[in-house]
């Protein structure tokens, strides 16, 4: 599975991705917005194994892809995960290595590509994501796609830090309206499976 943007190849994970993936997951900046169970150092290898398992499921409901910058550098991961969601819905997530945070519109480029893939190829009716209230970057990104935010029940570990759980949502109709009025500018899109 491969999707492309102007600057990235989004593809299924391979074994060679583990060192870079584990390295940025070990960075304290990567773990500051995660819960206590998500900072285990062994988790990176387990996650890649899980992502690879998802790639072979039939029907495929979860697409968790490596973000590879042209030239071969892994800069993060992204995904559309439909397992456990209502039919026609999937959760979109983008995770960049800390050295790429807030730079060059990387996350926005990837989010736009995934949203287009979800609404066009997977025929989703709604895409959503979840974050903590302290993560203002995600709120800005979701807003730039035309998404709306909804406050959800908050896990205790977030409450202890003074945060709330926020879910953002965008429907296919909202996405298409944003494309038609040029408020969302898609990247040139190509897909290969």
UniProtKB/TrEMBL annotation:
Gene3D superfamilies given in the database record: 3.40.630.30
Please give the superkingdom of this protein's source. Bacteria
Q: Which SUPFAM superfamilies match?
A: Acyl-CoA N-acyltransferases (Nat)
UniProt xrefs under Pfam families: Acetyltransf_3
Give GO MF terms, alphabetically. Answer: acyltransferase activity, transferring groups other than amino-acyl groups
Listed InterPro entries: Acyl_CoA_acyltransferase, GNAT_dom, N-acetyltransferase
Keywords, sorted A to Z: Transferase
Where exactly are the transmembrane stretches of this chain? none
Q: Which residues form the N-acetyltransferase domain?
A: 8-173
> Which PANTHER family does this chain map to?
GNAT FAMILY, PUTATIVE (AFU_ORTHOLOGUE AFUA_3G00765)-RELATED-RELATED (PTHR43792), N-ACETYLTRANSFERASE DOMAIN-CONTAINING PROTEIN (PTHR43792:SF16)
**This protein is called what?**
GNAT family N-acetyltransferase
Source species of the chain: Pistricoccus aurantiacus
